[in-house]
Amino acid sequence: MSAAPLLEVRNQTKHFPMQTGLFGRVSAKVHAVNGVSFTVDRGETVAIVGESGCGKSTVGKAILRLFDLTDGEVLLDGRRIDNLPTRVLRPLRRKVQVVFQDPFSSLNPRLRVRDILAEPIRNFGLASSSQDLERRLVSLMEKVRLPVDSLGRWPHEFSGGQRQRIGIARALAAEPDLIICDEAVSALDVSVKAQIINLLQDLQRELGLALLFISHDLAIVEHISQRIIVMYLGRIVEQADKRTLFLSPSHPYTEALLSAVPVPDPTVASRRIILTGDVPSPVKPPSGCFFHTRCPHAEARCRAEVPALVEVAPRQFAACHLRAAMALPAP
Ligand code: SF4
Description:
Elements: E1 7-20, E2 25-40, E3 45-49, H1 56-63, E4 71-76, E5 79-80, H2 86-93, E6 96-99, H3 113-123, H4 130-143, H5 160-173, E7 178-182, H6 190-207, E8 210-215, H7 218-224, E9 227-232, E10 235-241, H8 242-247, H9 252-259, H10 266-269, H11 300-304, E11 310-313, E12 316-318, H12 321-327
Parallel strand pairs: 3-8, 3-9, 6-7, 7-8
Antiparallel strand pairs: 1-2, 1-4, 4-5, 9-10, 10-12, 11-12
Bound molecules: iron/sulfur cluster.
């Protein structure tokens, strides 16, 4: 087994061109992701959080190679995959699977569950015989806690939570090392959400899977992840292990996000930080620190210089001039 991280994202950058007019002239670019770097180890759950439009889903889709990067690299087991021809990439795709948000549109309504799950097994040549295929299908149903006779049914016969279990089974069918869960429980009711989160945790323990959990919901992220990456307007603003981030957030944006998580203690709830203004457009992001238009601590330097992501405490990284200055060792 390689000593490299399972997944390494280096300086990932994705700018989408905006075309206008009859000839599709590029008039502007959406700066969706800007210089994002992180790793995911085997068996680890890393969460990416941030508001809608912060670029977190684009990070996941670029790892899946649903589009090419503007700049940067993606490495799997130490091997660069973002620039591989499709023919070479194809067998490696098996290692990274995805569970999308909407369990209603992500399953082909014209296929029975059996065929939905058999497709990746056949595509990646995993079954040695028809008996082996059948054994794998039954095992997948057991893994996601659905009755085996579900294999003969159609997607419309299931509830949202059951469909998401089928989506997870489809991801597992390829025997991946990493599953990207892109808002995978956002569309579900609260009680069903908890069941799916518990299922993902059980599967992770049983199978040694790594999860990249993309969500806007900090309460869920707190429950499932070991390490958390906070994104704002396409950049990472903070990265730390879960305990550190929740007990001692460093970046002003993380503090504001955490202050909005409902807590039973009314004295804690009253400390909510209300951010003024809207998230700026990714078409024309602000100069310097992207957060300076809303940050209560912004000063002149913040408008001029992009803050680097630096270690402000052991294994806690923040992109903030103020926090970096406070973290400097005494001379
Ligand atoms: Fe606020 Fe400045 Fe820090 Fe950005 S760099 S988060 S504007 S204090």
